[in-house]
Design goal:
The strands form 2 sheets. A 6-stranded parallel sheet has the order 1-4-3-2-5-6, sandwiched between helices. A 3-stranded antiparallel sheet has the order 7-8-9, with helices on one face. Helix 9 packs antiparallel against helix 10 (220-232). The protein is α/β, with parallel strands linked by helices and 278 residues long. It has helices at residues 7-21, 35-46, 75-85, 95-98, 117-120, 124-139, 151-163, 193-198, 201-214, 220-232, and strands at residues 2-4, 24-29, 50-55, 89-91, 143-147, 169-173, 236-244, 258-266, 269-275. It folds into 2 domains: 2-173, Rossmann fold; 186-275, Pantoate-beta-alanine ligase, C-terminal domain (Pantoate--beta-alanine Ligase, Chain: A,domain 2). It starts with a strand and ends with a strand. The longest helix has 16 residues, at 124-139. The chain is globular and about 55 Å long. It is built from 10 helices and 9 strands. The mean pLDDT is 97. It binds pantoate. Pantoate is lined by residues 28-30, 58, 61, 128, 131-132, 150, 153.
């Protein structure tokens, strides 16, 4: 497995991989890798493409009140995990490579980016869309793999790639869960042992609501019951909503392609999750 830290190193390595393998697959990450990332890398490797993982903690997607310095970092562990998963190349640019002085262009996604995380974290999706467009341009992959765990991010990036006619396919990969249902996330490590014990209640409450929605219930009552049970368990629920999957527009009852999405704070950790209905 090679590691590239500069653009000339990346260009040389991707050219050699393309000559040898044909297709390139990209797995963009911010490091602190867990089994969810591993699933992305394994899906990319299984596609037969040479797999490039990027590790870059992107300052542009963190708000002023969000602690960028607190984001977990584990370069040695990440490189070992990527090597073990069959990754061919790791792209680890510095901030000065991604955002050189004089840079004057960002991407401002609208539509699916506007609500939910877009409201809770102003500017977040501008940061995500901008860094993904840069990574796509740098690596020139044929496909890029994104987890369904960050459902709204997946929709925003998919829409951006289509709107800008970017010559790559965005491939979604199912959320990987702990055995008790908690969705894997780099931020789970900040839960105390006691909070970690309660954290699976989020997915359990969503699953209970999904069962009623699948049976044709209007969304209001099952969602109110789920919010209430989470609040009683000490969660600070930011949102719990039934939406049209691609557009993220709220809908009153289950429909094809709908998604249940949630964000709730437990202590200092903001948990995000989503699931289909039925
Ligand atoms: O999901 C993430 O880790 C990040 O938002 C991404 C896609 C790597 C962009 O920085």
């Amino acid at each position: 497995m090679q590691v590239a830290r500069t653009l000339p190193e990346l260009r040389a390595a991707t050219a050699a991989l393309r000559a040898r393998h044909g297709a390139l697959a990209l797995v963009p990450t911010m490091g602190a890798l867990h089994a969810g990332h591993r699933a992305l890398v394994l899906a990319a490797v299984a596609s037969g493409a040479a797999t490039v993982a990027s590790i870059f903690v992107n300052p542009l997607q963190f708000g002023a009140n969000e602690d960028l310095s607190r984001y977990p970092r584990d370069e040695d562990g990440d490189l070992a995990a990527l090597r073990a998963s069959g990754c061919a190349l790791v792209w680890m640019p510095g901030v000065e490579t991604m955002y050189p002085p004089g840079g004057a262009t960002t991407i401002e996604p609208t539509g699916a980016a506007e609500n939910w995380e877009g409201m809770a974290r102003p500017g977040h999706f501008r940061g995500v869309a901008t860094v993904c467009a840069k990574l796509f341009g740098q690596v020139r992959a044929d496909r890029a793999y994104f987890g369904e765990k960050d459902w709204q991010q997946l929709q925003v990036v998919t829409r951006m790639a289509a709107d800008l006619h970017l010559p790559l396919e965005i491939v979604p990969v199912e959320t990987v869960r702990e055995s008790d249902g908690l969705a894997m996330s780099s931020r789970n490590r900040f839960l105390s042992a006691e909070e970690r014990g309660r954290a699976p209640l989020l997915y359990a409450a969503m699953t209970a609501a999904a069962t009623e929605l699948a049976a044709g219930a209007d969304a209001a009552a099952p969602l109110a019951a789920a919010r209430q049970s989470l609040t009683a368990a000490g969660f600070d629920v930011d949102y719990l909503a039934l939406v049209d999957g691609p557009s993220l527009r709220e809908i009153p009852r289950a429909a094809p392609d709908c998604r249940l999405i949630a964000a709730a704070r437990l202590g200092t950790v903001r948990l995000l999750d989503n699931r289909g209905i039925g």
